[in-house]
Amino acid sequence: MFREGLKVVEFFGKFVKEIYNKLISIQRGRYKMSLKVSLIQMDVKYGKPDVNYRKVAELVAAAMTEHPDVLILPEMWNIGYALEQLEELADQNGEHTQSFLAALARKYQVNIIGGSVATSKNNFYYNTSYVFDREGKLQSEYDKVHLFGLMHEDQWVTAGTRRNCFKLDNIPAAGVICYDIRFPEWERTLMGEGAKILFVSAQWPRERIKQWQLLLQARAIENQVFVVAVNRVGKSPSGDVFNGHSLVIDPLGNIISNIPVAKEGAFTTKLDLTMLEKIRGEIPVFTDRRPELYD
Ligand SMILES: O=C(O)CCC(=O)C(=O)O
């Protein structure tokens, strides 16, 4: 009798919690017209995952003083481009990274675009991104699709084949990694699910930083989306210098962030999502497309 009583209480407890969570997500989905994003512009220590995980935990804690809705990390932040050490250092099935990011997301109740980390899955290596929601639930797993030959990434890493589309607080969004931004057809493909924000994580060297900015502005304008793009700072042993220049760009291509170029830190910017509908209404590029003429 007592046991049955407990079961009934447990059942109703679960039921009430589910209703509560539903109401919260409806509330977020309906009313959220702005979104605060924090970009974690960090140095990545080559081949030193312990140092890098600690650094991410510190910078995420620092970011939380600004109460962001979403955090984003750079590319390959666990080991840098230490490709020749993948056998030893790649995160097996991404398990360590997933539990690390899920715990941070839950602890701070914040959405996390986990940049990317080197993983090994079924004896292949990948450049993998994980996205977690505020409850620490995995919303997307993405393996970088376009591998960067100039840094020999294609000799070590296997290219992904899946899209990275997800919803955060009910807002549709998409994510890509670094070299992916040179393929406008890929970003356009991701827009098919109605993304309002494109998240980009990168290790983009200083010598081509002008191209980084122009490419990101173009992706924002042509897709009429906000672009939130984080790049690392620091140096790699091969001599590449990374000067950050992380950017938040509105759907008209205007830069709306004010992130000190080469400084390490967590930088927060607010996106006003109300401008999207107006822009898309005025110049309706999605309905004016002529896909029958394209390849
Ligand atoms: O496209 C570029 O110039 C940089 C790309 C890159 O560094 C990368 O994908 O890791």
UniProtKB/TrEMBL annotation:
Residues 35-273 form the CN hydrolase domain. It comes from the Bacteria. Pfam families: CN_hydrolase. PANTHER family: DEAMINATED GLUTATHIONE AMIDASE, NITRILASE-RELATED. Keywords: Hydrolase. This is Amidohydrolase. Belongs to the carbon-nitrogen hydrolase superfamily. NIT1/NIT2 family. Coiled coil: none annotated. InterPro entries: C-N_Hydrolase (IPR003010), C-N_Hydrolase_sf (IPR036526). GO terms for molecular function: hydrolase activity. It comes from Liquorilactobacillus capillatus DSM 19910.
